[in-house]
Amino acid sequence: MQLYNTLSAKERAELIEKAGKDRLTLSFYQYHHIKNPPIFRNHLFVTWNDMEVLGRIYIAKEGINAQLSVPADNFRAFKEHLDSITFLENVRLNIAIEQDNKSFLKLKVKVRGKIVADGLDDDTFDVTDKGTHVDAVRFNELIEDPDTILVDMRNHYESEIGHFKNAVTPDVDTFRDSLPIIEDDLKAHKEDKKLVMYCTGGIRCEKASAYFKHKGFKDVYQLEGGIIEYTRQVNDKGLENKFIGKNFVFDERRSERISEDIIAHCHQCGKPCDTHVNCANEACHLLFIQCDECAAKMNNCCSDACKEVVALPYEEQKALRKGKYKSNNIFKKGRSAVLKFKS
User: Fold this and answer.
1) pTM above 0.70?
2) Could you tell me if 182 and 151 are in contact, meaning their C-beta atoms sit under 8 angstroms apart?
3) d(CA 42, CA 109)
4) CA separation (Å) from 7 to 15, 75, 308?
5) What amino acid positions are annotated as catalytic residues?
6) Do 175 and 152 form a contact (C-beta atoms < 8 A)?
7) Are 161 and 186 in contact (CB under 8 A)?
8) Cβ count within 10 A of residue 316
9) Rounded to the nearest 5 degrees, what angle is found at the Cα of 24, between the Cα atoms of 262 and 221?
């Protein structure tokens, strides 16, 4: 029984291009008490691998978090399989605003301690006791209310390129960092303000809504389906769009443009820009914002030091990396001091 990938990302990309068929990028999540995550994980991998599904899926005792690329021809079979699983029947699927056939190039289904790392060790906290879900219409009404506090539950590199007007955007690297900071900053308003939260697809603000209810906040709301579903409803219903800039996404696309506003700046020259890239030096792989002019000038690197490394023959670059720990915290490294205009 095959329970792992047999093709490299490069080989998969070539197959996708050769097939010439459309794929759908989508995501979904569901908090649910899963008794045996490893068995559930294997079942999903075997079934979805046969359907040529690609993506990043996390399974934990608290539920599932999935970001996927599904062949359009296989979407019906994929949906029927989801509906055959009791707690995933009719689960909301967030279809990407901008499609890319190569958004994911491998199928990775992993068992984790939690589907959203929160740093909490509290047996009395029930993640299923969530806040009130609101659609785009109600959300727009709530955030115009002077008694509402709107909080972005995403990380600094996400809100930097796009966020809702007047939102509190915590300067944090991870979701787990944001929970105690927000609780402390807003503790005086547990009873007199409406706490409204949003994130990319809903999974983080759903857990956050349950957490803040647990901590005594009386009036807690979350944007159902996150920015992705909000944008779909705005377009379908002709609503006023209150999101400015881009929505950061965790796949090869890096972002989806929601409005034409560019609110971020190139981290190297300060020019208005909201394009995230990774440093071309594989030993660095720093995530940062870089304009086209700086990309050409710096050979797609974040610093002169990395530019020098990339100029070396590939074998020499490999030799320099040999024996060194390769961090995968590419998002945290966006704090690098080499970025002169990093806000």
Assistant:
1) yes
2) yes
3) 8
4) 10, 22, 32
5) 199
6) no
7) no
8) 10
9) 60
pLDDT tens, position by position, 291-327: 999 999 999 999 999 999 999 998 888 888 877 665 5
The amino acid at 224: E
CA atoms within 13 A on the CB side of 309: 19
Q: pLDDT of 77-130, one tens digit each? A: 999 999 999 999 999 998 887 888 888 999 999 999 999 888 887 778 888 888
DSSP lists the bridge partners of residue 312 as: none
User: For residue 281, what are its two tokens?
Assistant: 């030096």
273 burial type by CB count under 10 A (0-12 exposed, 13-18 middle, 19+ buried): buried
Angle at 154 between CA 176 and CA 167, to 5 degrees: 120
Distance CA 48, CA 70 (A): 9
Give dist(CA 207, CA 203) in Å, integer.
7
Short-list 166, 201, 197, 163, CA closest to 183: 197
Phi/psi for 109 (5° steps) reads: -115, 110
- 3-state SS string for the chain: CCCCCCCCHHHHHHHHHHHCCCEEEEEEEEECCCCCHHHHHHHHHHHHHHCCCEEEEEEECCEEEEEEEEEHHHHHHHHHHHHCCHHHCCCCCEECCCCCCCCCCCEEEEECCCCCCCCCCCCCCCCCCCCEEECHHHHHHHCCCCCEEEEECCCHHHHCCEEECCCECCCCCCHHHHHHHHHHHHHHHCCCCEEEEECCCCHHHHHHHHHHHHCCCCCEEEECCHHHHHHHHHHHHCCCCCEEEEEECCCCCCEEECCCCCCCECCCCCCECCCEEECCCCCCCCEEECCHHHHHHCCCCCCHHHHHHHCCCHHHHHHHHCCCCCCCCCCHHHHCCCCCCCC
What digits encode the pLDDT tens for the residues 250-290?
Answer: 877 889 999 999 999 999 999 999 999 999 998 888 899 99
Residue 302's pLDDT is: 92
